Amino acid sequence: MIADVCILTEGTYPYVMGGVSTWIAQLFDSMPQITFSVLHIGASRNTPRQVRYKLPQNLVDVSDVFLFDYPAPRLGHEVMEEHALSPDERKRLLRFYLDLTTGKPSNAMSIASIVSRFRNGQEFIEAMAHSASAWEVVTDLYKEVAPNGLSFLDFYWTVRALFLPVLNLLRFPIPKARVYHCACTGYAGLLGARAAQETGRPFILSEHGIYSRERRIELSRVEWLSNSGASKFNQLDRSRNWFREWWIQLFQSLARSSYVEAAKIISLYQGNKDAQVVEGAVGDRIDLIPNGIVIERFKDIPREPRKPGSPLRIGFVGRVTSIKDIKTLLKSMAILASHNVPFETKIVGPMDEEPEYTEECLALTQQLDLSDRVVFTGPNRDLKTVYSWFDVTLLTSVSEGFPFVIIEANCAGIPVVTTDVGACKEIVAGMGREDLKLGPSGLVTAVGAPDQTAAALEKFALDPDLNYQYGMAGRERALRFYDLRKIMAEYQDLYETYIYAANGSYGPNRLSYSSS
């Protein structure tokens, strides 16, 4: 069966719970008359995968592709040259590599036609990584871009790490659908761009966070990149080495490829739209549609002013991961304790995504002598009960898009202390004239600033009336502006517009689909 909409995901639905996955589940549940399929991008088929959501009836197919799913090559010179690249293919591959490492939009179709000719992963890896013709492409690339003195050994292995997953992704067949909808740029965005080029079907791109910028944050912190070579990109911090900048340009290229091919780009808030334009998106293709929640789940949670002197009950809802910066959360708790502020804290959410980081957070909890005040509960789907306990919701993330947790907490009448990332500041302050009139529903701090976080929490601890006032402003804001039914109606209109266009003559490569 051909789905109306194919959702392209990367490390999210249906295997990982969280904001983007929740949004995808909302799409399915809100539009039972529209059929969906999911193409999920993962690391390897050997990576454990467990479906975390009940799959709805209108989800007709879930399939997987893997970035690192290729076997070891056969041995022997003759075998390696059996599937060698032609001179024209070598030229196109070199051009593709140059685009990816200079941040330019890439022509996925020019390479998909090369890698799709291999019958299996073994043929692919032999030709693209171990043949003499593939070696010639790497040496030509080195001559073209490498600064004097750059280690060729480091260069060769970086080329493999950068490009083989991208090429591997392009050899998998694209599921047939009337519309393609991608939840981010990156590898999933490249598949969306390829689907648009290959099928002529409409491609919709939604960005909950700016993927290329999130990868920059991560790459600025990793220690596994080689320090070989000096930076030649003066516009970037000189502490970033040459290979780090190459990775940054790769994700910039993937983002711009997505922007170029998207018929419509959805942004969650104005700041996100502005960032997309800076990153290469065309402004008049961008529509603003925020996230929404089922307000009936949270609007009737009883809320009364806290008694003066009672412990402040602080709650975090989300994954225990480095991007959520749980360590800053814990450090802020230690500051509160040193100020003799009475409090209790619950950290509610999955703890298995980054096991090492989770262990570090648990160890830090003990080191800061917080074990009697801070509890890691693990996941809990009964959010009504979860929020009923909170006096204030805390978010210390280093990166966010448009987090559901702020809207949910506000709808429950709970104020928020959040870092100034993504849409967080705009949500708690108000986005439009009528929204601003409601007043703030939270306090905003800098990223990685436990002293500011502790000061904001202490403000709510010392003033129960302010705690209640901010919570009621948040509840009214959620009821007026973040009702899921209204927001999903906008997506339904968008889908129906493009499904109708796709059923007609759309694009030069239009596929002949049946109505089944």
Keywords:
six-stranded parallel sheet; globular; Rossmann fold; alpha/beta; 516 residues; single chain; seven-stranded parallel sheet
Integer count of domains: 3
* Count of helix runs: 20
Assembly state here? single chain
What is the CATH third-level topology name of the largest domain?
Rossmann fold
Based on CA atoms alone, the radius of gyration comes out at 25 Å
- Alpha-carbon distance between the termini? 6 Å
- Named at the architecture level, the CATH assignment of the largest domain is 3-Layer(aba) Sandwich
Describe the sheet with the most strands: 7 strands, parallel
- Summarize model confidence as the mean pLDDT: 89
Name of the level-1 CATH class of the largest domain: Alpha Beta
CATH superfamily of the largest domain: Glycogen Phosphorylase B
Count of strand segments: 13
Order of strands, main sheet, comes to: 3-2-1-4-5-6-7
Ranges where pLDDT stays below 50 over 5 or more residues in a row are: 230-240, 504-516
Q: What would you call the shape? A: globular
How does this model look, in words?
With 516 residues, the chain is an alpha/beta fold. Helix content is 46%, strand content 14%. The strands form two sheets. Strands 3-2-1-4-5-6-7 form a seven-stranded parallel beta sheet. Strands 10-9-8-11-12-13 form a six-stranded parallel beta sheet, with helices on both faces. Helix 3 crosses helix 6. The termini are close together.
